[in-house]
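Minutes, project check-in
Item: structure for the 945-residue chain
Input as provided by the requester:
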Amino acid sequence: MASESDDEFVTLLCTNPNAAEDTETFISTTDIHNWELSAILRCQTVKIQAHRVRLVEQSSYFHGLLSGSFCESNLSCVSIQWNMEVFINVLKCVYGCKVDITSKTFLSLFEAALYFGVESLLLTCKTWFSEASSTKGPGLLEIQVDDLIHIWNFGLEHANDFIPELCASYLARNFMQAISGKFFGDVPYNLLFHCIKHPDLTVYSEMHLADALLVWLTANTERLEPLSKAEDDCTGILNQLRISLLPLWFAAGKRRSCYFTELAEKSMETIFRLLKIPPADSIGIFDDGDLDHLRIRLTEYSKKVNLSGCPQITSVILLLSLLPNSYCVDFMLRKSIRQSLINLERLSANRDQCGSGILHGLPPILSFEGVEEVDISKCPRLHLESTIEIFLKSFPSLRKLRATHLLNFKTTTLHKLMLKCPRISEVDLTIDITPLIPAQVSVISSSPVIVPPLTNKSCFVGNNFLGMASYHSQPSVSNITRLILEGRSDISDTGISNLICRCSKLHSILVCDTSFGINSIQALCSGITSFGPAASDLEKRCSDTLAFKLQTLHIGGCMGVDERSLFDLMSQTQALVSLCLRGTHVVDDALYHFPGSSLEILDISNTMVSGDALAYIVNGNPALKCLNARGCKNLIHQGSNTSGTELSSSYSCRDLYTVLGKKCMLEEIAFGWGFSWLSLLALRPAIMSLRAISVGLGGSLGEDALRLLPTTCPMLESLILCFQVISDAIIINFMRSLRHLQALSLCYCLGDVSTSSFKNSIANLRKLRLERVTPQMTNNDLVVLTQNCASLVEFSLVGCRLLNSDSLRLISQGWPGLISVHLEDCGEVTATGVSYLFNCRALEDILLRHNGPGIPSSFILDAASKMPMLRQLALDLCDACEGDFDIPNDGNRYLLSIVKIARCKFQRSTNIYFQETHRRPVHKDTLVLVWNAQNLNSTVVKERI
């Protein structure tokens, strides 16, 4: 190129005011492929020799500047007033070099391409943005929200129609990731509105969309207020919500929201209107001209579907969401579908049907291959047989199913799920734990267990998979890797063991408070029986068992497991990450023979484990994050290793808290016996990021430790203190300092505590228990509490005897979204009735005891019908204004599964002058009604539970 005339070149003079060096350099485009950008950008002045013709041909800017009849066209040097790094990339594109574009550089390059008129760079930018904005994969956003906002604004300002459309489409498809970012509140109203209206809007549930809009409105309050139509703006964006599909608890709780009050009321009305329609008549919704408000949002980009807490959802509504839109618009097609769905509803009425041919006669339903996770917890109106058939057709990639608190989800249903949806790998069938735990109650009487007769269509014998065939003769029919059956006391040990044997890939089993026992342990360790007894083969024999591969084992409360079985099981579980042995017969030897080193979660609460044995485990598992050792009285005693096995030489420290402080970075801890201020000091290096702490009976932190707790653990989200000495100053410090606190429990604590402690706002608090700590609480204090803790969903008061009949009104008006309320020994709260409580329509757990004899006999029936999510109810006959309570039958109990009715006898005062007026109630017994998947058990126990 040296032989060419100087007229062939032009010098481009670029300056970089932010350069690191006050230097000048000269470079040529003939060597552009070898340019080192970092070296160039260090110089303050850069002279670039470029081909005049190349610039003219590739850039409309240089074409106008260098090829016209203007005097500038003969210039040999042109000054460039542009960002040097961006302009160098423009030149690279002009010369055919690859230009790397990211969400951070797109806008500057696109703007430069427009200014300099470089069509090749414009095309490159458009191609990148089109591809980046159409990505389907999960994970981090290809385009960050703050960059997307700048790109959207630029597109509007420069009338580039393709940019706003792609921005709205991209935000719609990636909505769930975007709402968790810190820049979501900065999204312009028009972008957000177009995103919500976009057919590709992808959310896990309607609740997530509603919550995101409320977060956005809160963040933009000041910006919207000056607008004359601010209210219209809010209404316009919220009216896009399908309020018929909101969870009941969410709608109930948003009735106090300044933006959502009216919509929340409409949502509640719609939900209860749907609930009043009998299942056989629910097809009447097809008479509605517009069915969009009943269609669950599903797109080709959907990964999760969350219907949890929506009692209004039926199989018909689910199926409606899976039909093409055209079928719901065409009159004749709708008529045909209506008849087919009527047949479906008739089938749904028969719970014993196996579900074959359930979609016969319906048009082909849509398939969403991206959906991998579905949550139908607390959706009692779903017909499970038809729902599984729908999952098979519409969610062929389904891998995770949560169906908690559904008593009608039997083992037969699980078996059909495993057969029809073979890709299922995780199943959660948790239900409420029965209060009839043998080790904790003394049974006075119990009604016979009613077992329904078996039919020829039954795929099971009782609760067990295909009877009692031997472990090794049963083929594996499932790919399940994670199985959660917590609380399922209706499944026998043999049933659990047979289920385990059909899950050869199982690595996580959570079966707390079930009949999990010796047979189940034998199933986990069954591989050991297929090898010889030679000691040299032990490692090989153990590695072929499910126990060896287990990562999660939760068997808390399973009293059917003896010490020997636990010892055998623990000695084989080498890969465990999460272990719960709460309330079992585990002893030190089992821990000393635990070979694992990967534990992150350990719960040995209410066991006889010693501090030495626990320190041994901690020493060998430095990744431990969560430890629950409440109720372990032996922690303060020296442990023993009765088997005589020699322990690892690496174990030298006998102080549990010192080991924890040196080895671990803890996130959750729970202690009782022996836990003190010195213990907390030893733990201090390990608890700077602590999220939850619980101190129970036997522990004593003292005022100094409690005062320093917010400084030591500033990230606390949950704080539980039982039987501690506290004061107003300590509580005020908690309320002011712990800004992340979501759960606070103060139970049976001593000290000088007044209600003034709770006059500080704590907006994030969701759960509050004040039991025997605030006896002077009044209705005025309740009002302050509802204002300062406006987000509560769980509330418990015990021993607040100054409260009266107005208290329920204040509670229900202040927290209409409560899902749990416990009021015991609280003055005259229920003396004149409990009608105000029905304002909390989403309650799932109610305890009302010794609050005044004003509860009518129909309360249980009324509560079950007016609170369709109610599962647990505890009352006392002392509060029954008619002397007794009516008991619901299976047909009118809805989700109600546990009812406890305590009974008292009156004991006269020892003062002979006040025998008639001073008769105090003394507990006599408790009637416990428990419904499970098969029957109702009626039991009387001595304890007050």
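Outcome recorded: Residues 779 and 807 are 6 Å apart (CA to CA).
No further action items on this chain.
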